[in-house]
Amino acid sequence: MIWTGLILLVIILLMIDLLILNKKGSVLTQKKVAIETTLWVLIAGLFSFIIYWVFKAELVPNENLLTPSEAVIKYITGYLIELSLSVDNLFVIAMIFASFKIPVNHQHKVLFWGILGAIVFRALMIWAGITLINQLSWITYVFGAFLLFTAFRMLLKEEDETKPSKFKAFLYQKFKVSDTLDGQKFWVKENGVKMVTPLFIALIMIELTDVLFAVDSIPAILAVTTDPFIVFSSNIFAVLGLRSMYFFLANMLVKFKYLKYSVFAILVFVSLKLIVLHFYKFPEWFSLTFIAVCLLLGILVSLMAKPKNDK
């Protein structure tokens, strides 16, 4: 019953987002997206009270024997992890939109359907991850090692702008793509031939990008808890706010360049949590504090750093 309620809530929020907050023809302003971003964060925060009530009333199986307070802390921790790991995702989304020269007023539709697809894919990946951990206890070492590898790869790699263009070329070979955008349409007919628009190709690229990022974020949140309700809700509420956060930070992403090191520290921490899980469990207050401090330091250092004078 409670799962049905959560899914209905997500559907209602998506409909409000599509039909009220961002109805066709509405103008996106910095003030509007700032309010929407705050609203999504507030909704995610308010849901922590639902988490408390659900575990206090024992409305979901509690195999980990979590107290209501512990469940809330794990939910907030998972939510912050997902938000922090979404920063790189925002950079890639911005690059995809720039490569297709998609106007801002058309980007919302792509992101809306992208988020809808992300919810489905992440639900499947969460189920698979929890099943693996419950059936194969040693898989935590694999997840931990993978996250550690991901952290150092992210820190050391140079941005390769040729990869998205190669995948873009591959999609253009597989689909009949129209040369021009036609409003917010995904399909058009040209000379009697049904073709997809660049908007549709951008959607596919964004969906694939989210799946690739979920490969990192799902094991990270499983280091916090394997409770399905907490993992799914914290992950989904972070994803729901990703669209408005993208528009809010679109012009400021370059300023937060030191968040990369915050994300690196968080990934290293959660990977170590997974690796030592069978020998030592970090207190939840320590995990939440560590993640919050890392994010705060990354933001403050980024804002205080003097921008370089580029030619």
Question: What would you say this structure looks like, in words?
Answer:
There is one protein chain. With 311 residues, the protein is an all-alpha fold. The protein is 73% helix and 3% strand. A two-stranded antiparallel sheet has the order 1-2. α4 packs antiparallel against α8. About 2% of the residues have low confidence.
Search tags:
3% strand; 311 residues; single chain; 11 helices; two-stranded antiparallel sheet; mainly alpha
Would you spell out the secondary-structure blueprint of this structure?
Layout: H1 2-21, H2 30-56, H3 68-100, H4 104-135, H5 139-156, H6 162-174, E1 187-190, E2 193-196, H7 198-222, H8 228-240, H9 242-249, H10 259-275, H11 284-304
Antiparallel strand pairs: 1-2
Helix pairs in contact: 1-8, 2-3, 2-8, 2-9, 3-7, 3-8, 3-9, 3-10, 3-11, 4-7, 4-8, 5-10, 10-11
Secondary-structure content class? mainly alpha
Strand count, sense and barrel status of the largest sheet are: 2 strands, antiparallel
Rg value: 20 Å
Q: Can you give the helix content as a percent range?
A: over 70%
E-strand count: 2
Q: Numbering strands along the chain, what is their spatial order in the largest sheet?
A: 1-2
Summarize the structure.
It contains eleven helices and two strands. It has helices at 2-21, 30-56, 68-100, 104-135, 139-156, 162-174, 198-222, 228-240, 242-249, 259-275, 284-304; strands at 187-190, 193-196.
